[in-house]
Amino acid sequence: MTGIKKKIIKTKTVESKKKSFELTKEQYLQLYYYMRLTREFEESILKLYRQGKIVGGAYTGNGNEATAVGSAFALEKQDYLFPMHRDMGAHLVKGQTLRHLMLQHLARGNSLSKGRDGTGHYADPALRIYGNISHLGAMIPMAAGVALASKLRKERSVALTYIGDGGSNVGDVHESLAMASVMKLPLILIIENNQFAYSTPVSKQKAMEKYSDRALGYGIPGYTIDGTDLELVYRTCKEAVERAREGGGPTLIESVTMRMHGHSAHDGAEYVPKTLLAEWKKKDPVQRIEKLLLDRKILTPKIIEEFERKVVAELDDATQFAIDSPYPPAEEAAIGVYAD
Fold it and tell me: The domain spanning residue 237 has which CATH number?
């Protein structure tokens, strides 16, 4: 095979903190606020579920907050977000209000889905958020399609979406990446490797070392990062977003985290080794960014206390507003379900 040059695209494990895309003090405080708000919002959801005020599933991204918040913070207003059920922080960063999110979880008639669905199953075109469906792998073709439309319209917009370690094995995901790589679509896919696909550990899901190794097959950049490191998540995603915006095509990012709760509120996660949870608890992303900002003198105990009061007041307002809001009337059950 003389005369033929082989191009090898390597996937990388990103460990060091890059100096590009530096954050300001105000941005660090914003990120900390979103991290705290995400954690407390999901704790509120669990309480409401246990009180019988939420019907259906109640999901949390405990342990995954840095991935959701850091990745969405890399986006601009014109970009598209396709979050999963563990990406509540991404909704908040993109501009979604607590009232809308609480109404959605409590399935009220004035929610974004008009009470016909719950959790993150909604779309808000004004914010360019298109929430998850239960068949998570099917979101990736949708995101790729939007990325294609954005390219054809010359919008310079990027589509960011996510998939879990288990969902990454679905054919829809591979087909979408194959198309996006060939067409150089502005698509970023984050594989949230949080160690378990419901109760199946990652060791029984793949033969390769890293999920980002799959990028080699598509000829696109692939990165494996510590998903509890907020700074690292932001900088890796920011680089990928800007590359896509300039026509460089898609990027595959594996964010390694731990799902600290069960699959949903009903799941006690007895199948997860206690030693594994104890080890990952030491890397709690919320505590990690708090310590980092305290060490850098960006945060102070007084600022933390102010944030805590603010978060509690905002959550109390959103919760009470949603509880006081009406359910959709029964006679409207079929409206908007079928095409005219």
Answer: 3.40.50.970
The answer to the question of residue 20 being in a domain is yes
Residue 40 backbone dihedrals phi, psi, to 5 degrees: -70, -35
Report strand pairing: 187-193 vs 251-256: parallel
For residue 333, being part of any structural domain is answered with: no
Q: What does DSSP assign to residue 22?
A: P
Q: Is residue 3 part of a domain?
A: no
86 phi-psi bin (left φ>0, alpha ψ -120 to 50, beta other): alpha
Half-sphere exposure of 122 (CA within 13 A, CB side): 26
- Alpha-carbon Rg for the chain, nearest whole angstrom, is 20
The structural domain count of the chain equals: 1
- Three-state DSSP at 190 gives strand
Give residue for tokens 């509880």: 323
Alpha-carbon distance of 45 to 94, in angstroms, equals 20
pLDDT in tens, 85-116: 999 999 999 999 999 999 999 999 999 999 98
Structural domain includes residue 220? yes
Separation of alpha carbons 42 and 288, rounded Å: 18
Active site residues: 259, 263, 271
3-state DSSP call for residue 160?
A: strand
**Is the CA virtual torsion 131, 137, 140, 145 positive or negative?**
negative
Q: Which domain holds residue 15?
A: 11-51+60-325
Closest C-alpha among 11, 1, 17 to residue 289: 17
Q: In the structure encoding, which two tokens stand for residue 241, read together?
A: 């977003």
Pull the structure tokens for residue 324: 């006081």
**Cβ neighbours, 10 Å, residue 83:** 27
Q: Amino acid letter at 32?
A: Y
Strand partners, 11: 222
- Distances from the Cα of 325 to the Cα of 40, 103, 107, 197, angstroms: 22, 8, 10, 35
What confidence score (pLDDT) does residue 34 get?
Answer: 98
Least confident of 3-7, 240-244, 275-279: 3-7
pLDDT at res. 14: 62
Q: What are the pLDDT digits (tens) for 246-288? A: 999 999 999 999 999 999 999 999 999 999 999 999 999 999 9
Residue located via tokens 């970009």? 79
